[in-house]
Design goal:
By secondary structure, this protein is mainly α. About 65% of the residues lie in helices and about 5% in strands. Among the domains are: about 50 residues; about 100 residues, Phosphorylase Kinase, domain 1, CATH 3.30.200.20; about 200 residues, Transferase(Phosphotransferase), domain 1 (Orthogonal Bundle); about 100 residues; about 80 residues, no CATH class; about 100 residues, Serine Threonine Protein Phosphatase 5, Tetratricopeptide repeat. α26 packs antiparallel against α27 and α29 packs parallel to α31.
Length: about 1000
């Protein structure tokens, strides 16, 4: 095996290991060219990897078996192998064991790893701690926690773990080396807090937080290490084990919490305390106190009486003392309380106070006095207040009132700020009273619903059998009367009931309740209040998928006016822009495109949970406008945003990125993203989930287009088998979407007879729910093309005229897309069917985007248009021009695709060039083109493909002219058999067949 080949295998393996194990086979089957020969080798390596790497550990963590004779791992040397790894460099040695820099010994992976080797000559409790760390880490995947890659026992019986190798400095060293400010140190501590909070959400307490376990990379990213003495808070795992009985004192005493020292039960408050010690040291430059290393009794005594000083008293530099005094003193003091119940309830609560301090806001650790709030207010709004004070002072001085007047002005400003703060405090107290009264009213109303139900029934059993829907209906009937004097409570109940109606699929009922809520909010708050805007947006979303959707624009306009009138709320504005895009995305690109772009620009400035979806919608609008490169940028942002929220959120973004790349002609990249989306969806949602089926059928369509018919058909069959199941989530709308996806490749594979009923069903659904949509234009264009195949010219004209008018209205002058080209092609075919060749040529005059110039722009649609234009040139008596046109596109296509295939448009171009060569009597050249087209059709098309039969007739006519009558006769017989599947074909197909049959008989 050459070094070059080994490097290629390593690169491919790196790509595969980014996928879940369930996606390996799909990925392997997608390899092509020279890489296809490596599939057996890669499959073997992945099988070995699966037995050793993290994926298997997550499901079945291997037990560490302690050998009968203890081994001394201190004898490990550079070059030793531990499991599949080779030791390269000793990184550190401690009481628990050693940490080595390692790499795969078999060369299958270039990734550096940190190998942990315990001193298993210790008591058995150490082995349990080591195994527990492996178990804990396998469930913690968060950007600021070092990942576990592998764990096992080597041939000598030594347990090991392979973790992410982090090139960085301990937190305290990083801060000192960079001379970081207190603000910068706080931002690093916030990364640590996020990691610890994530671990707590997975029921894991770290229990050994210290700077040495917090490494910071060169780009300022923190990685939390060493969960070696962490304890799970789940079920019976909180019981005492050998971990606490034998080696429970293996912790870092300087950062230990009082309850750890005393041997009391450990919870999340212990990590709050230890993080407080780390923060104290990092901000003040010294620890709050050093614990003497003595007996447990001595340690407990020290903890009980040694109160932590204020950080500002310990800090050395005067500037640091000043910055620590106040908020940070209070925050650290609260984190270091001896009683766990007096500390912050969670690490996240501690982090939120740090964030409030950085933002100049009130922190919860300080007494909530008017003076303190005024101080925070002045600090938060220092610049505008200073500017205002200077402006007034200058004005007063200009009037000649002197320095005394300036002092008076300053006092007035301070008094004004104090009065403002007092008013704000009163407003908050009033709001709290209103909230309390509202909560009581809502509670009373809900109890009334159940009481009303029991009174309405004849017996208790009947009352117990009342359905959720019936209870909802009772609530709707009583809401007006029961909450007449509590408009805010009534509003909350209306929205809650509407949301429940939505959850059980009763959209129209939900929409009507939201309409009632909107009218109530308008009356209660006024049309310029942001609270009204929020309710109006909820109502618009509910109406958008009902027959009442025509009312949505009015609601969105009202919400926008409220936003423009009041204080700006970027998050609410982003939601408004998203709702505008969602409403107009199929009706007006002129309105949806700028709204989606503005929403995406807002997302870049604010952190929104909906960010991935906002980016995806913006990308969809760009694709509709034909801007596939811009769509790609948005989709990559969507993937990045979704990865922060979990891999499951990236499925749709990867699927749509595949579409954008495919439109640009980057087929290999497109397939890779489509396969990654499928693997992720199967892993997170299961093989029969709705999303998984849609991703699978879209991958199938991509493979059909690329000429990989067998693979595509296997995926399609899998989808069709799954759809036969009676699953509640497979509702009518989902089945309609699947029917649309399943219909798409049928026409390109020569079966318009099969696709037509699916297209008509989809059109009927769109006419009912989205009558003005671009999707309806697309269905109309497809059906017009099919009508032409079967000679229904009036039907075709009606459909294509409607499609073009609808699509032009949708575009509004914004961009040109694949559907634009398709509509022009269908219109040109209609002109050809009516014998108006000049009109057909004029119609296609704009279809002049060669592959080499457009880098795949609307690739398939443009190529089909060019093939049709060449056919028109031949019929107009200009076959040389037609040949040049087809030559140019075929050469550019071959260069651009680099060995990949687009069978359908390529076959059309070959057919067009073959017919042009026949017209110039270049029969051998024509035969070559037509045979190549026939081979593509046989590999790609259905056995009863019209397009296959069309090529067979053309080739037969060519063969008759050069004496190949026997083969021609066979081809014509095959074509006739195909035509039997298609009743009512147009003269486009029947006339050439009749001419060829007449020629063979003569």
């Amino acid at each position: 095996m050459t070094p070059k080949l080994l490097a290629r295998i390593s690169t491919l393996l790196e790509s595969a290991l980014e996928l879940p194990e369930s996606g390996y086979e799909a990925w392997l089957s997608g390899l092509s060219g020279d890489d296809a020969a490596l599939v057996p080798t890669l499959r073997g390596l992945l099988a070995r990897q699966a037995a050793q790497e993290t994926a298997d550990i997550l499901d079945r963590p291997p037990a560490f078996t302690i050998p009968s004779q203890s081994l001394d791992t201190s004898q490990s040397r550079i070059g030793d192998t531990v499991g599949p790894y080779r030791l390269k460099k000793l990184l550190g040695r401690g009481g628990m064991g050693e940490v080595w820099l390692g790499e795969r010994a078999d060369g299958s992976l270039k990734r550096k790893v940190a190998i942990k080797l315990p001193h298993i000559t210790w008591a058995p409790g150490l082995a349990e701690r080591f195994a527990r760390e492996r178990e804990i880490l396998s469930g913690l995947e968060q950007p600021n926690i070092a990942r576990l890659y592998d764990a096992g026992v080597d041939a000598q019986g030594r347990p090991y773990m392979a973790l992410e190798y982090v090139e960085g400095l301990p937190l305290d060293e990083f801060c000192e080396a960079g001379g970081l400010s207190i603000e910068s140190r706080l931002k690093l501590l916030l990364q640590v807090a996020d990691a610890v909070a994530f671990a707590h959400s997975r029921l894991v307490v770290h229990r050994d937080l210290k700077p040495g376990n917090m490494l910071v990379t060169a780009d300022g990213q923190v990685r939390l290490l060493d969960f070696g003495i962490a304890k799970l808070m789940e079920g019976d795992r909180t019981r005492e084990t050998a971990l606490t009985q034998v080696s429970g004192r293996a912790l870092t005493l300087d950062y230990a919490s009082p309850e750890q020292i005393r041997g009391e039960p450990i919870g999340t408050a212990s990590d709050v305390y230890s993080l407080g010690v780390v923060a104290f040291e990092l901000l003040a430059g010294a620890r709050p106190y050093r614990l003497k290393r003595g007996s447990a009794a001595e340690l407990e005594e020290a903890i009980a009486h040694a109160h932590a000083p204020l950080a500002s008293e310990v800090a050395g530099p005067p500037a640091a003392k000043k910055l620590l005094k106040g908020d940070l003193d209070a925050i650290l003091n609260k984190a270091l309380k001896k009683d766990p119940t007096e500390r912050y309830a969670t690490v996240d609560a501690l982090a939120q106070d740090w964030r409030r301090h950085l933002a100049g806001q009130v922190v919860t650790a300080r007494p909530d006095t008017v003076t303190y709030r005024l101080t925070r207010f002045v600090r938060q709004y220092r610049l505008p207040l200073t500017a205002a004070g200077v402006a007034v002072a200058v004005f007063v001085l200009a009037l000649g009132f002197g320095a005394t007047a300036v002092v008076i002005v300053a006092l007035l400003l301070g008094l004004g700020a104090a009065l403002w703060q007092a008013r704000k405090a009163r407003e908050q107290a009033r709001a709290a009273r209103i909230e309390g009264r509202k909560a009581q009213a809502v509670k009373r109303f809900l109890l009334d619903i159940f009481e009303a139900n029991s009174h309405m029934q004849d017996d208790p059993l009947k009352a117990q059998q009342t359905t959720a829907r019936e209870l909802l209906d009772i609530g709707v009937q009583r809401v007006e009367q029961g909450l007449r004097d509590e408009p805010e409570a009534r509003l909350e109940v209306l929205e809650s009931l509407a949301e429940i109606y939505l959850q059980i699929g009763l959209r129209l009922e939900a929409a009507r309740l939201y309409q009632m809520a909107t009218d109530l909010a308008r009356a209660a708050y006024g049309p310029q209040d942001l609270r009204f805007a929020r309710v109006a947006l909820h109502c618009a979303r509910a109406l958008n998928s009902t027959p009442l959707r025509d009312e949505v624009p009015r609601l969105l306009d009202e919400a926008r006016l409220a936003l423009d009138a009041g204080p700006d709320d970027p998050e609410l504005r982003a939601h408004l822009l998203h709702d505008l895009t969602t409403h107009y995305r199929y009706e007006s690109l002129a309105k949806a495109l700028p709204a989606s772009e503005e929403a995406a620009s807002l997302v870049e400035r604010i952190d929104l949970e909906e960010a991935p979806n906002l980016y995806r919608v913006a990308a969809r609008m760009q694709m509709m406008a034909g801007h596939y490169d811009r769509a790609e940028q948005f989709l990559r942002q969507a993937i990045s945003a979704a990865q922060k929220q979990g891999d499951a959120r990236t499925v749709n973004a990867h699927t749509e990125l595949a579409e954008a790349l495919n439109h640009q002609g980057r087929m290999t990249e497109a397939e890779a993203h489509a396969r990654q989306a499928l693997a992720l969806s199967e892993h997170h949602h299961g093989p029969q989930h709705r999303w998984t089926l849609i991703v699978r059928v879209r991958l199938s369509n991509l493979l059909f287009e690329a000429g990989r018919g067998d693979e595509a058909a296997a995926l399609r069959d899998q989808c069709e088998r799954t759809l036969t199941q009676d699953r509640p989530e497979y509702d009518a709308m989902f089945r309609a979407d699947m029917a649309d996806y399943l219909a798409r490749p049928l026409s390109s594979r020569g079966r318009p007879d099969l696709s037509e009923p699916l297209e008509r069903a989809d059109l009927a659904d769109l006419e009912q729910h989205f009558p003005h949509s671009s999707g309806r234009a697309q269905r109309e264009a497809e059906l017009a093309d099919i009508a032409l195949v079967y000679g229904r010219l009036d039907d075709a004209k009606s459909l294509i005229d409607a499609a073009i008018a609808r699509w032009d209205r949708f575009l509004g002058g914004h961009g040109t897309s694949a559907l634009t080209v398709h509509c022009k092609s269908v219109a040109a075919r209609l002109h050809m069917a009516n014998g108006r060749l000049d009109a057909a040529a004029t119609c296609l005059a704009g279809v002049d985007w060669p592959i080499r110039a457009g880098v795949g722009r609307f690739r398939a649609a443009v190529l089909k248009g060019v093939a049709q234009r060449a056919e028109i040139e031949t019929r107009l008596g200009r076959p040389v021009s037609a040949q040049v046109l087809a030559d140019s596109e075929l050469s550019a296509l071959q260069e651009h695709l680099q060995g990949a295939q687009l069978p359908d448009p390529t076959a059309l171009l070959l057919l067009a060039r073959g017919n042009a060569r026949r017209a110039t009597d270049d029969l051998r050249g024509a035969e070559s083109d037509l045979r190549a087209a026939l081979e593509l059709r046989r590999l790609h098309d259905d056995h009863a493909s019209l397009w296959l039969a069309e090529v067979e007739v053309a080739l037969a006519s060519c063969l008759i002219a050069i004496g190949g009558r026997e083969e021609a006769q066979t081809l014509l017989a095959e074509a006739q058999n195909v035509y039997l599947h298609h009743a009512g074909l147009s003269s486009r197909f029947l006339l050439p067949l009749e001419q060829a049959l007449a020629a063979i008989r003569s």
